[in-house]
Write a structure and sequence with these properties.
Layout: E1 3-9, E2 13-18, E3 23-28, E4 31-34, E5 39-42, H1 46-63, E6 70-75, E7 78-82, E8 85-86, E9 89-96, H2 100-104, E10 112-122, E11 131-132, H3 134-139, H4 145-167, E12 171-183, E13 186-190, E14 198-202, H5 212-215, H6 221-233
Antiparallel strand pairs: 1-2, 2-3, 3-7, 4-5, 6-7, 8-12, 9-10, 9-12, 10-11, 12-13, 12-14
Amino acid sequence: MRPIDLLYAGKAKSVYRTDDPDVYIVKFRDDITAFDGEKKDTLGGKGRYNAEVSSFLFDYLEGHGIATHYIKTLEPATIAVRRLEMFPLEVIVRNIAAGSLVRSYPFCEGDLLDPPVIIIDYKSDALHDPMLNDDLIYALELATPEELDQIKAMALAINEVLQEYLDERDIILVDFKLEFGHHDGEIVVGDEISMDSMRLWDKETGASLDKDVYRFDKGDVLETYASVAERIFSPPRRGTLS
């Protein structure tokens, strides 16, 4: 299995076709961006941490009956994945009010959202990822009602699995982004699940453990990513969510 040509280069990942038409290779680069690309840097080693965490969490979800595009890790910062027909949707699951939710709506940061709130954006850099509602999704033919119901159900199931796992390691899953696609008629999770796509807080201190450290100059990004990876790979620190 080897890369043949570049299919897509995003802000922090490059996707390559391979000699197997059903398999792509994803390389997690060391680039990091914020504020719609207005802030950007390259941090040596950052791609490896995101790749390792994504691989681990995809494998963990598979073990809990949730299908993903992940096949295997090829080398540091590089994974093999199944080719998906992607929905142009960014599905954000929010457990606690933070970020744009606080800036755009009358929530206070830290407000518990029970049940969790699902927000779906149209994945388009040119349009700056505008928020969608169900009617817009159907009108634009981005997903059928049946597909959207399944996507939302899967997002909530993933949220439950990840919340419990991270809670055992004293990490609060504030919110996170998912992307989905079709593979052989089945809807599966694609893209990544990493510190770049999750908002995480330390349960004891409330400190940010994700890309907010970079966005708002809260500390050493690589040190934070390394510590989160270590905690995710480690045994539980305490009991599960009550």
